[in-house]
Amino acid sequence: MSHQKICILQMTRIGDILQSYQAARQLKLENPNISLSLIARRDMAKGLIFILQDTFDDIFLFETSDFFPVGTKTLGSAKENLNGFLNEVNELELDLIVNFSYSSSSSYLMNLIESKHKMGIKRSSKNELVIDDRWSQYVYSNILDSTHCPFNLVDIYKNILGAKDNHSFPVTMTPTNTITLHPFASDKTKCWEPHRWSELIFKLLKSNPTYSVTILGAKADIANAELITLTPTLKEFSHRINNQTSKLNIEESFNEVKNSKLFIGHDSMVSHLASIAEKESIIISLGPVKPHETSPYCDKVVNIASTTSCSDTHELKDINPQLINFIANEKLASRALTSESLKTNVNTFSLQGIKIYNSKFDLGGLRLNNLLEDTCSSQDVMRKFLRICFSYYLNDLELEMSIPKLNQESIHTLRILKDGMEYMNELFHHAMITCNAILEETSSKKSDTKNIQQQIKKLAEIDKLLLVTVNKYKLLKPVHDFFYINRLNSKGKDLAQITQSNLVSYYEAQNFLSFVEDLTNTTLGPKIIDRNTTKDI
Amino acid sequence: MSIQEELELNIKDMNKKLNSNQELSSDELKILLLSNLIEEEGKK
């Protein structure tokens, strides 16, 4: 019996390749007989071969310049170069190719690679974007332009691939008394100011006299690394600061992280390397970082995020180095970080406006739990609901959740949101009636084209009203967007079949929303009005 | 004619095909891929 051949197309950055690898590694563990291959950009994946090779049987690396080498004068010769690459990949005779990239070029490449089955974005012969599978529809509708995603990207990739468990992959290491820092990220808004890092290093080295600190970074980070390390306050500790910025390749950096006791950094490629090394880590999530989605995939991670992170303005409450130092000391002493220990040992002001998440695996994958959470904001409540509803709808998983404690803001917002759910439900109901009218008309022997056109126009109007509704009730946007993309990808050879698919989609959207509504009602409880106090309780 | 000019000309023809509801060939999809790769390279 031949082995199933699966290929992952990942044309984005190093961090995304590492997250794809973590999902693929789990799939391979559960299905040791499959043959896995990867297509990635050379400059992103070349330095990761030492990791990728334990999971992928074939790795295809390319760059745009491969198709346009110096001296290429015609489009014809560029196409010939592309054909050479495609022929090599197509020799694999793939059973399945999965696109994790979501870039325009990757959608075209999907069409040109031969495979029995294809998942993720691709193009139709009429140049339309097509997404057949539901998890990829979820990514396209809920990740690219949203901050409400409750799932870790590795879990989403695993769901697309069909990997089920959360297996731990032990790493051989010989830890020394070192703390590895990566104080940089691809985007400046994701980084602390250098003086914050200097302050943290000072505190770390002062409170841990037997430890040294290693700083990792790329060539572009040299100036900032000097700003961090050459500050007068760190002069007395200079012999315990090992600045390796731009000196190590990715494999050497990985070994450095692996053999240290603790990693501290921002959301970056090195943080994902630390998760592959199963390293105790502290991640400082700033600016546009979406911690629920991109937190390193490991249950040894504490992720600290400003509560205003992910907002449109990216205005930040600064995270205090004293807090990071406290968490680092707790981790080095192997003490569990708790809400009580934080509140007792860190000043209240440092804990305001931030979230401190620990990471735990449950049936739905990696879950971030806010240690400081006494009550939930409406955004947090909805994220919890969506995790439950999408896990059930897309994976048939029943996740457990304690009823979130609400605050004034979440009570107020959820009550208003119920109106939005009611409007959406009505619109879905009207859409189903309209779909049925189209189906009735198309199946009639004397079908009235004018009536069909009118009904199609009505469906378009309903879709517009749905959009108006979610623009007002923004927390319902993830539900709307998913089913909108789902309808856009409706299957069918003729109007009747496409309408049938749309009818099913509207029906499922209504059921999904009812599920969210049930959770909302259970969480809110009954509205009790006491006339003596004239206030809602 | 430069490669860029060739690409633009080909894409113009493809748009005409698409506007008249015709399907694109595999060869044309290759041209779109190359064009998109160049465009994404420029954004780096």
Number of helices of chain A: 21
What's the story with the biggest beta sheet of chain A?
8 strands, mixed
Proportion of helical residues of chain A? 40-55%
Instruction: Kindly provide the radius of gyration of chain A, computed on alpha-carbon positions and rounded to a whole number of angstroms.
Output: 26 Å
Descriptive report:
- The complex is a heterodimer of chains A (about 525) and B (about 45).
- Chain A has 21 helices and 17 strands.
- With about 525 residues, chain A is an alpha/beta fold.
- Chain A folds into three domains: about 5-130, Rossmann fold (3-Layer(aba) Sandwich); about 180-375, Glycogen Phosphorylase B (Rossmann fold, 3-Layer(aba) Sandwich), CATH 3.40.50; about 410-525, Methane Monooxygenase Hydroxylase, Chain G, domain 1 (Up-down Bundle).
- In chain A, the strands form four sheets. Chain A has an eight-stranded mixed sheet, with helices on both faces. In chain A, strands 3-2-1-4-5 form a five-stranded parallel sheet, sandwiched between helices. A two-stranded antiparallel ribbon of chain A has the order 6-7.
- In chain A, strand 12 (about 280-285), helix 13 (about 290-295) and strand 13 (about 300-305) form a beta-alpha-beta unit.
- In chain A, helix 1 (about 15-30) packs across helix 8 (about 155-160) and helix 18 packs antiparallel against helix 21.
- The radius of gyration of chain A is 26 Å and the shape is globular.
- Chain B has about 45 residues and is mainly alpha-helical.
- Chain B has one domain.
- In chain B, about 80% of the residues lie in helices and about 0% in strands.
- Chain B has helices at about 5-20, 25-44.
- In chain B, helix 1 crosses helix 2 (about 25-45).
- The longest helix of chain B has 18 residues, at about 25-45.
- Chain B is globular.
- The termini of chain B are far apart.
- The interface between A and B is medium-sized, with 22 and 23 residues.
